[in-house]
Amino acid sequence: MMYELLGKIIVYSVWIAVVLVTLSLFVGYIALKRRVILYSFSADVLDFFYMPLKTIYARFGNTKKLDAIMVGLKNMASKKKYMKTKKRILLAPHCMRSLDCPASSARDGIQCKSCGKCLFTEIKKTAEDMGIRLYILTGSSAVKYVVKRDKFDGILLLACDYELNKVMRSLAPLNVPVYGVPLTKDGCYNTKANVKALYSAMKMGL
Question: Which of 83, 114, 142 delimits the end of a domain?
Answer without folding.
Answer: 83
